[in-house]
Design brief:
Strand order of the largest sheet: 1-2
Shape: elongated
Radius of gyration: 21 Å
Oligomer: single chain
Helix content: 55-70%
Low-confidence stretches: 6-10
Largest sheet: 2 strands, antiparallel
Distance between the termini: 37 Å
Structural class: mainly alpha
Number of helices: 12
Amino acid sequence: MPMAAPIERTSLPDQVFDQLARDVLSGRYAAGERLPTQRALAHDLGVNLASVREGIKRLEQLNLVEVRHGDAMRVRDWRAHGGPDVLVHAIAAGGALDAEVLRSVFEARGLLLAESARLAAGRRSADQAALLETLAHQIAAADDDEAAQRLDFAFFAVLIEAAGNLVFLLVFNSIRGLYLEHLELFRAMVGDREARAGLYGTAARAIAAQDGDAAALAVAQLAAAQQQALLP
């Protein structure tokens, strides 16, 4: 059975969780496999039992492990039982992007954003339409990639809000924290923004004009270009 690598004694319970989640998501512990006991994990990680228990609770909440009274902890098949929140940990484990997971996320992102644009064209308020056009102009005039990246995120946040679909909004929210904490890993998405700047404006104008097909097409093209930049 694989041994967990020790972590620094200054670690908090969430750091214990992060390491155990990485071990499960990376396949270090296979689905159905028993985890070491909590006492053994505490010894291997160099932390107290309370930190391990808290980490295990969080693994349970994500359906990454199953704990039964009187039985060892077993790893669950996260692809079969996990939800969108698992992506936050699977996509950037160890500070590096997982290309396979990222490709799946961006395929889903493109579909979600295009359909959100179509819905937004019919449901947006006048203020939302105006804000999208303002953000499109600001992206084109951004001083650097970091500023453009934050504006890009704001543009799509407004677009999804304007779509008025709760499920789309919650899926978008599930990766918000990861994205904003690791902006540098996704910076290539806006690296060639001069070539794509017009698509933001095209999408914003189409939404303002309530042209759902044109809005969906522009956003789909923009999302595809961003995926290509990050995953050539």
